[in-house]
Design the sequence.
């Protein structure tokens, strides 16, 4: 049972409240100057217990570093390539500022000031904020704080980078300057595979009869090392490739076993080309020398190119989604809405045609002439 008792101090009479926590542990709080203050505190404790909102005073004194270290360990479900930027954001931006702070003392205004003052790109700011907010979300669920002071702050907006789509002719020009990597350039531009998915392919993943590649592995660079895992969506998929790639792919298989890596020497996974002086930079420079209108493109732009070429060839959004390995057709539309503008034009034309056919049918049925039709 809860109780209120008085005791004497050098400063005069004080009151102490004894009560039980929701897990039935006995605890107390002292130092109240009046019995009324003690009664109000006890009433608030009982109400918070009844509503399931009770927070023990000591729980809020836990530092963010302690909670963050545990939270980071629990991110093991992330792929290495996703975990690394999260760990960097914690280590460089979150822990140095908030590590020693008790979670109960973190204020919304302080978080807003921190977000506003963070340097770097919008992606860096949003990722760092996301780490802090996620840790505080756990603190709320653990009944350490009533609400998350990080939620509701003003955040920077990411500005989407303009996508570059190569034409068939531009793909061929770039591939012609890529030397022995030409087949890889064409393959990326016509299948839409991510770099890690392409270089992770093995000979056995080719289905030459169906003109398909089965995506089973992903070989990505993480901290200077290649880490092999499942595809980004964690789901295997089958992707078609055009018939003109059959012979070049067959040549890549020559002398290799079924479990050998398709691209490269068959043993080691291909590393991404050097961003300053690798084969990709050389191929792009030579293509631009030959065609001064050739755009500056990244390897990932070949994935965008594959989507563009597929849509131009008549593929619908569901087919493009499956080819690219997106989680949903809605995601594909969000990313490549600009590629389906012609579909909107077609909708307008189809509606106009349908209305015309419908009205002509009614006029014939009624024996009226189209020239008397009311608009």
Sequence:
């Amino acid at each position: 049972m809860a109780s209120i008792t008085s005791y004497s101090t050098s400063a005069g009479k004080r009151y102490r409240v004894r009560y039980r926590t929701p897990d039935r542990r006995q605890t107390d709080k002292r130092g109240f100057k009046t019995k009324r203050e003690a009664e109000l505190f006890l009433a608030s404790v009982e109400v918070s217990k009844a509503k399931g909102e009770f927070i023990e005073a000591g729980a809020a004194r836990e530092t963010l570093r302690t909670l963050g270290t545990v939270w980071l360990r629990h991110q093991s479900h992330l792929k290495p390539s996703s975990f690394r930027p999260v760990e960097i954001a914690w280590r460089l931006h979150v822990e140095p500022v908030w590590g020693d702070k008790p979670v109960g003392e973190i204020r919304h205004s302080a978080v807003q000031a921190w977000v506003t003052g963070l340097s770097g790109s919008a992606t860096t700011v949003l990722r760092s904020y996301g780490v802090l907010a996620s840790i505080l979300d756990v603190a709320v669920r653990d009944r350490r704080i009533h609400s998350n002071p990080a939620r509701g702050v003003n955040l920077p907006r990411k500005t989407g980078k303009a996508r570059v789509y190569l034409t068939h002719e531009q793909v061929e020009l770039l591939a012609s300057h890529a030397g022995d990597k030409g087949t890889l350039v064409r393959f990326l531009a016509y299948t839409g595979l991510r770099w890690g998915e392409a270089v992770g392919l093995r000979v056995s993943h080719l289905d030459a009869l169906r003109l398909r590649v089965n995506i089973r592995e992903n070989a990505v660079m993480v901290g200077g090392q290649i880490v092999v895992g499942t595809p980004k969506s964690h789901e295997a998929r089958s992707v078609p490739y055009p018939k003109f790639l059959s012979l070049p792919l067959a040549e890549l298989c020559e002398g290799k076993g079924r479990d050998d890596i398709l691209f490269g020497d068959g043993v080691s996974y291909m590393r991404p080309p050097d961003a300053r002086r690798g084969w990709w930079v050389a191929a792009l420079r030579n293509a631009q020398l030959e065609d001064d209108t050739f755009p500056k493109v990244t390897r990932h732009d070949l994935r965008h190119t594959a989507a563009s070429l597929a849509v131009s060839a008549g593929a619908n959004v569901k087919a493009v989604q499956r080819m690219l390995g997106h989680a949903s057709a809605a995601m594909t539309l969000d990313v490549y809405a600009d590629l389906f503008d012609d579909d909107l034009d077609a909708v307008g034309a189809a509606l106009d045609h349908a209305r015309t056919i419908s009205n002509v049918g009614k006029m014939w049925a009624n024996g009226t002439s189209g020239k008397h039709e009311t608009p």
